Amino acid sequence: RDTTWPYQCFGCFVFKPSAKKKKTLSLADHFIHGCEGAENSEKRFKLCQDLWDQIKTDTEVLQDELNRNILDSLLDFTRKCSSTRQHSDWASQMRASEIPTAALVLGVNVPDHDMTFQSLSDLLQQSVTPYVASVQAKECGALKHLIKRVLERLMGTVVTVDDEEEEEAEQTSAQHHKSVHCSLSTLCDWYNTKTKKSNTGTPGKKRSSPVRDGPQQPPVVIIFKDLEAFNPRVLQDFILICSRYIERLPLMFIFGIATSPSTIQHLLPHSVSSLLCIELFQSLSCTQHLATVIDKLILTKQFPFKLNGKVMQVLISIFLYHDFSVRKFIKGIQLALLEHFHSQPLSVLCCKKKEALLNVMQLDHLDLERIRHLLSFKRYVEKQEPREQVDLLTDDTHLKEVCQKLIKDLHKYHKNYYPILRCLHTLTSSLPRYPLGKQIRELHLICLEKNVWESEDYQSAMKLLKMLAKDELIALLQRCAEILQPAKSKKIKSALVQLEDMLTKFKQLDSNITSPLKHLQKKTDLAQLQKTLLEMNESRRAKKLSPFEVLRNEALEFIDSLVKSHLSPPESQVLNEVCYYTSSATVRRHLNATPRTSIQAALNSPFYYLQNDRLKTEDGTVSNAAPDICIAYATVVSAAEGNDPDSDNFGKVDEVKHARFIRAVSELEFLGFIKSTKQKTDHVARLTWGGC
């Protein structure tokens, strides 16, 4: 369950397996092993797996929707460039002498790029060309390696580079096709052979492939996933070589750029970049991507599993201050999901309402006792009459009936919470200086932590809303009505009716009052804003309110009542523990691991990672069976092996032990725990202190 496996850094230590063959554990067995409340662990695993699959499916659909525009544009670009080669006019010929290049700016969220490139590669192969190769900088350190990777992925065969790799190629040739020489002329010959076969086809057979129904010479697309990481000299030489074959080979490049399009200018001189016909493509920013993911996966009643404010804050902080990876953010949600169902026995109630009500009636006495110990349930019991308190604490049947009602109330809370949250965000996100945050996730975090209506920012937002003109306020209230329209909750439907009545009254008013906020949209100085608010308060006291102002105050009081009724923190809801995950420290430890601490834990307690019984010790000492790196050999090994301290050979280290010791010291130096000094021969100094 720990994301860091430090022993992989310094080698693999082999232990002799037992003669008895061990049974392979399934994922369900791993989940159930050591699970809190093992009596219902299988049912919880099934619920967890269903939610996991649902999150995965919805995420994939969401990724496709977000990338659809940029991928469609890239597909159109490849088709257009391929058709240009078929034309005979002078302009097309000049354009065809350059290598068509798509500069795809994806942003700095590098961990998410693989999924985008995989989708792009699949779409290209399905609808444009079967000849697509993707390369990364780490596997293309030299020009020969870059050409080798391109040829191997396009031709599906072994490519020989030089005499040093002949032996490796001969070993693998028995499993692959005959090896070919590493050059673009080889690729040209192979491409001509392939396209002739595709165009000729089999007599009497119709071509049904969508790729073959396209141009007679489908392009050869090479995707550079991480352009910034490529060696500039290697990239320049490769482009120069490819430019000499452009008349024989319809090449096309796609540059994956994480930073800025100016990267191309920094990597390629004009003599090289002039050989490319570059078109820029910009994907959605990672922050826009995150906002959509939060909106679809978290701010919805569709998923019964929820995250509390601290866990949400950890996931967002890791996203904003570490890697901007939406993929890692989703993994964090899945990790929290797994931890919640593994550690919370009452998570069997974290499911759809009908299923949860059935599961309540199937709870045993132990589960009911767990409910009685929940903090939210204790607060609920304290508010009841003495007789009801006794029944709740002693009568299991009565408790089940009450729990069914509480589960229904919890689901109603979520049904009402999200529409009202969106309404409040709609009203406040257009105000100067965004008192409750520009993004809805910021407002959601405030509502998770405390009563939002008690905050100064909320009071300031309500005062600013009272300064809106008629048209501005009507537009915002109309958007709120559209948000409430799809809701099925009775309370929300009733609120929608009242809101529509107010909108009708607003439209019947003849007054056309300008907004004092007009000039504040440009001047957002805090001192000026406070001054204007004070002036508005003084003017209200001095004059009688107009019909518009009366109706405006009534509308905002109505919004305020909805906020106070439906946006209370989840901790105020009884049985919130069954569906809210709260361990932010666990999420931070797994997603934002500290390698040095984990390595120290492995060195001090190798059993924690290797799970070998021979490494178990009771008094905190290191077993002589531990890896060499964990042992101080001069004392521990000799003593453990039972050598007599009074013997002549005691203290003398043989060559094997000496070699093992030197290797262990070298490994510690490689990991950064010690370093060599110049004080004397073979002297090292410690670099880290403390431990686990």
TrEMBL record:
<dbReference type="Pfam" id="PF19675">
    <property type="entry name" value="ORC3_ins"/>
</dbReference>
<dbReference type="Pfam" id="PF18137">
    <property type="entry name" value="WHD_ORC"/>
</dbReference>
<comment type="subunit">
    <text>Component of ORC, a complex composed of at least 6 subunits: ORC1, ORC2, ORC3, ORC4, ORC5 and ORC6. ORC is regulated in a cell-cycle dependent manner. It is sequentially assembled at the exit from anaphase of mitosis and disassembled as cells enter S phase.</text>
</comment>
<dbReference type="InterPro" id="IPR045667">
    <property type="entry name" value="ORC3_N"/>
</dbReference>
<keyword id="KW-0597">Phosphoprotein</keyword>
<keyword id="KW-0539">Nucleus</keyword>
<feature type="domain" description="Origin recognition complex subunit 3 insertion">
    <location>
        <begin position="362"/>
        <end position="583"/>
    </location>
</feature>
<dbReference type="GO" id="GO:0006270">
    <property type="term" value="P:DNA replication initiation"/>
</dbReference>
<dbReference type="InterPro" id="IPR045663">
    <property type="entry name" value="ORC3_ins"/>
</dbReference>
<dbReference type="InterPro" id="IPR020795">
    <property type="entry name" value="ORC3"/>
</dbReference>
<dbReference type="GO" id="GO:0003688">
    <property type="term" value="F:DNA replication origin binding"/>
</dbReference>
<dbReference type="GO" id="GO:0005664">
    <property type="term" value="C:nuclear origin of replication recognition complex"/>
</dbReference>
<comment type="function">
    <text>Component of the origin recognition complex (ORC) that binds origins of replication. DNA-binding is ATP-dependent. The specific DNA sequences that define origins of replication have not been identified yet. ORC is required to assemble the pre-replication complex necessary to initiate DNA replication. Binds histone H3 and H4 trimethylation marks H3K9me3, H3K27me3 and H4K20me3.</text>
</comment>
<comment type="similarity">
    <text>Belongs to the ORC3 family.</text>
</comment>
<protein>
    <recommendedName>
        <fullName>Origin recognition complex subunit 3</fullName>
    </recommendedName>
</protein>
<dbReference type="GO" id="GO:0005656">
    <property type="term" value="C:nuclear pre-replicative complex"/>
</dbReference>
<dbReference type="InterPro" id="IPR040855">
    <property type="entry name" value="ORC_WH_C"/>
</dbReference>
<dbReference type="GO" id="GO:0031261">
    <property type="term" value="C:DNA replication preinitiation complex"/>
</dbReference>
<keyword id="KW-0238">DNA-binding</keyword>
<feature type="domain" description="Origin recognition complex subunit 3 winged helix C-terminal">
    <location>
        <begin position="647"/>
        <end position="689"/>
    </location>
</feature>
<feature type="domain" description="Origin recognition complex subunit 3 N-terminal">
    <location>
        <begin position="11"/>
        <end position="349"/>
    </location>
</feature>
<keyword id="KW-0235">DNA replication</keyword>
<dbReference type="Pfam" id="PF07034">
    <property type="entry name" value="ORC3_N"/>
</dbReference>
